[in-house]
Amino acid sequence: MNISPRQLRMFLALAESLNFSKTAEQLFITQPSLSKAIRDLEESLAVTLFERTTRSVQLTESGRQLAALARTVVGEYDAGLRHMRNAAEREAQQLRIASLPSLANVMLPQVCARLEARHKAPRITIHDCTNNACIERVMNYQVDFALASVAPSHPELRYEEVLRDRFVLLSCGAWRRRVADEVMLEDLLKLPVISMTDASTAMRYISAALLQRGVEFRPKMQLDQVGTIAGFLKQGLGVAVLPYLGMMPMVHLGGMKISAIADGPLRSVGVVSRRQGSASSIAEAAMREIRQVASELMEAHTHWLLPAHS
């Protein structure tokens, strides 16, 4: 037995009007098509649904029973479709992003504010985590894309660089007076450097740059959070090495000095997405906004931020 919701709708329309011609016109089909659909339905159920005469059409007892059942079935079917449609609409407005905390702090507030202004009630979830965790979330379909600083080597992932970020030396208090406006990488070896932990991409960039010179980087302290580093700097416990975007949340703190690292590495900042499948419209919009915010940041901080590799 193969009965479609369309057949049931035709049956209910005819059960209401009891007029083949009127019902066919209402449904925008021909009367022979309607008659065939009703015959097919009766054959599938092995019952007679209508008593037909030259003057009238009447429901049989089986027809009346089916009408009561069909209203329930069609109603539940329509309700299910509405539920699926609403769920699809909610999903279309749901955005999930993984991001390094420093990038989430500096870039994503503007991106999300613009999305809220242009899209109806977007539901945005941001996972601020390590670079590896960001990439894993993209691989596992837990996020739409990631804002990261190291291009993944996995063939299923795409990396689009949006800018490059200089590393800087941040000092405060007495150390502010001792540190020059511009230093070299090897100068870091003579300073009480506070850095991010080995799990951070920032630490890996600096370590790799010094290893290329045959030197192992051994900071005085290693901390997980930029905010914690700021507290240690304020107490005069050392100087900090961070990418420029990573230290931007500290700019509002008084007494901080930014020194350029003339021969320091450049950190890549980009969007990691899956090669297969298509992104949702809101995810595409978010990636466009990230490119725009990156462009605006480069215009505002030309000395510290560079365009992506062409």
UniProtKB/TrEMBL annotation:
InterPro entries (UniProt xref): HTH-type_LysR_regulators, LysR_HTH_N, LysR_subst-bd, WH-like_DNA-bd_sf, WH_DNA-bd_sf
Q: Give a yes or no for keyword DNA-binding in this entry.
A: yes
PROSITE patterns for this protein: HTH_LYSR (PS50931)
Q: Which domain of life is it from?
A: Bacteria
Which GO terms of the molecular function aspect are on file?
A: DNA binding; DNA-binding transcription factor activity
According to the entry, every stretch annotated as the HTH lysR-type domain falls at 1-60
Pfam families registered for this protein in UniProt:
HTH_1 (PF00126), LysR_substrate (PF03466)
Task: List, alphabetically, the GO terms of the cellular component aspect.
Answer: cytosol
Which keywords does the record carry? DNA-binding, Transcription, Transcription regulation
Q: Which family does it belong to?
A: Belongs to the LysR transcriptional regulatory family.
Protein name per Swiss-Prot or TrEMBL: LysR family transcriptional regulator
